[in-house]
Amino acid sequence: MRYQQLINHAIDLIKSYNAVIQTPDSHCEQYIQEKCKKLFDTEIMFLKQVFSGVQRYEEFLKILTKTMFTILSSTTNRNDGTLYQIFSYLIIFRLDELPYNEFKKMVNEQDPVKMNVLLQFLFDIEKNETQIKPLWIEIYDPQYIQETVIGGLEQHFTMMKDLLSSLSSRATCKQSDLVEEDERPQSAAKKQPTKTIPFKLSETKKKPETPPPPKPQQYKSKPVPNYLNKRTLQQVEEENKLRLEQSKKKVQESYKEVKQFELKTEQRPTNYEIVKKEVEDTLNKQLQFNMKHFRPVPTELEQAEIKLNAAAILREEMLLKKKQEQEKERVKNLEVNLRDSGEFEEWKKQQDQIEYIAKIEYQQQKKIEMELAREAAMRAQEDKFKENRILAEKMKEEAIERLKERQELQQEQVEHKKQLIEQIIEAEKKVYIQVEKVQEKNKQMAEEQKLEMARKLELKRQEDEQIRIKREELIKQIRELERQPIKRTKGYDPTETMGYGLLEEMSLAELRDRLNVVKAERKVEEEEKRKEIVQSKDDYLLSMQKKVQDIKEHRRAESQQKNMEREAKKFKKQKEEDLKKKIREDQLLEVQNKISSKKQIKSTEEQRIAADVRETKLRQQYMNANKAMVEMKAWKSQQDGLEREIQNRQNEKLILQEGVESVNLKERKILAEQAKKLVKEKVDFNEAYDKELKTAYQRNEQLNQEEAQNRTQMHNIQKEWKQEHTKNMITRDEYKQKISEISLNNSKKKSQQQQKIQFQQSNQLEKLPSSQYS
Question: Where does this protein have coiled-coil stretches (predicted)?
Answer without folding.
Answer: 314-341, 378-484, 625-652
